[in-house]
Amino acid sequence: MTIIKGESSSFFRKYSKLERKDFLFCYLLVLIPVVQFLIFWVYVNLDNILLAFREDWTGAFTFRHFEEVWAGIIGKDVYGFNLLELIGKSVLLWCLSNLIVFPISIATTYVLYRRVWGHYAFRVIYTIPSLVGGVIWVGLTKIVCEWNGPIISALSSMGVHFDYAASTQGLFGSYSTAFPTIFILSFVLGIAGGNVIITGAFSRTPADLIDAGKLDGLGFWGTFWHIELPCAWPTISTLMTVSLCSIFVADSNFFLYSNGTGAYGLANMGYYLYSLTFRISQSTALVRPYGYPAAIGICVTLISVPVVLLGRKLLDKIMETVEI
User: Fold this and answer.
1) How many Å apart are CA 299 and CA 294, to the nearest integer?
2) Domain ranges of the chain
3) In this structure, what are the phi and psi dihedrals at residue 289, rounded to the nearest 5 degrees?
4) What's the pTM value of the predicted model, to 2 decimals?
5) Residue 17: Cβ-neighbour burial (10 angstroms; 0-12, 13-18, 19+)
6) DSSP code string of 89-115
């Protein structure tokens, strides 16, 4: 193949046999993730959208599933759950995790990063929770929160009174204590989250900037606020944005804490979507009614997309990005 006159692109030149083999290898290498994306993302999500508008038994076009979603918002759906309450619990846990726990985690990570006295011991303490699997943590906390466990025993000795259900079935066996217990556990166990990633973000700060800050009279926390935090802000804002994307799909281990039942208020939107889809998939019926959870997924997506876009915009305005 000859080069066309006036064309500067190498597309028109003749390639050797070795070059064609290299191109073929690269195309085949890229083909695998592209096919996976088309099958497991494009096809799956398109099929989920169509399921929401399809009658389960006849396949006819319908809005019935969205009517069921609305009934679940203003009251209880066919499975006995109030969707607005589930959304509220998801938002509440996200606010706890990202507006309270995450800033504390950033501050504690900075303290350890600056190598204060005893930082090696605290690093080990911070690392241990990330090495233990979630199932093991849930098992341990359920044992500790039993009716005869150390928590109820200690609080009872201090004069705290529990209702009959909590006194006989534990903290996860009562409506009055189950969700508050999850709330407190999310606070305590979430402080160590993201420690490694945030430490890596702090380590990117040039030493010259820190030295210049010291010459200008910045102290320990002044360096954090005026130098370290702006330099690490792109990583921090990305973590918060990713977390915001999962606000309605994170189940907070409700499935494990409630043994898959969602009883005693141990449910949020992430748990409900997972549990509902799992139960339908285990059904022996000829037709499995996926239309209702698909409709919930569309409604949740319509809520989360503007929330994520607005959240990202606010994060960009909170602090100016610093190029290192």
Assistant:
1) 9
2) 84-318
3) -80, 80
4) 0.80
5) exposed
6) HHHHHHHIIIIIIHHHHHHHHHHHHTT
Take residue 238 and report the two structure tokens written for it: 């990305």
Q: Which residues are CB-neighbours of 49 under 8 A, at least 6 positions away?
A: 294, 298
CA distance 162 to 140: 21
Q: Say if CB 185 and CB 98 are below 8 A apart.
A: no
* pLDDT tens column, 273-289: 998 988 888 887 777 88
State in words which class domain 84-318 has.
mainly alpha
Q: Please give the distance of CA 21 from its chain centroid, rounded to a whole number.
A: 42
> What's the burial of 190, exposed, middle or buried (CB within 10 Å: 0-12/13-18/19+)?
buried
The CA dihedral of 266, 267, 268, 274, to the nearest 10 degrees, is 140
Please count the residues of the chain: 324
Token pair recorded at residue 114: 């600056």
**Nearest-CA neighbor of 305 among 265, 245, 256, 227?**
245
